[in-house]
Amino acid sequence: xxxxxxxxxxxxxxxxxxxxxxxxxxxxxxxxxxxxxxxxxxxxxxxxxxxxxxxxxxxxxxxxxxxxxxxxxxxxxxxxxxxxxxxxxxxxxxxxxxxxxxxxxxxxxxxxxxxxxxxxxxxxxxxxxxxxxxxxxxxxxxxxxxxxx
Length: 149
Hints:
single chain, alpha+beta, Archease, Possible Chaperone, Chain: A, domain 1, 5-stranded antiparallel beta sheet, 3-stranded antiparallel beta sheet, 3 helices, globular
């Protein structure tokens, strides 16, 4: 390995779900907004199936744009939901880049295999309920939203 090049260590993304009436909240955490958005996307997959069952085989470019981080998260999640529905895919890895209200990402996944993935629900869309992107007091970022199932 060339010692002059930076190495990137892949850390596991931290995410969780939270209850909200008949719907479900997705929440991602990270050292940057990009990591928090990727973790929220992984939480989105986890609403449907165990993300560990999804092989990151095929790259799918995803783009979103919005004037503020909260709306960018909303657009990102809805773009992923649209890609899942129209391509009949699930995703388990996300490379996210955000700059000036533009998000460019690659979602890595595979076609849905009902037997292996055992999808629990279909996500209808992201909502504006509890939509929030913020830097926490410890310096980490949180990205959350409630999705309609």
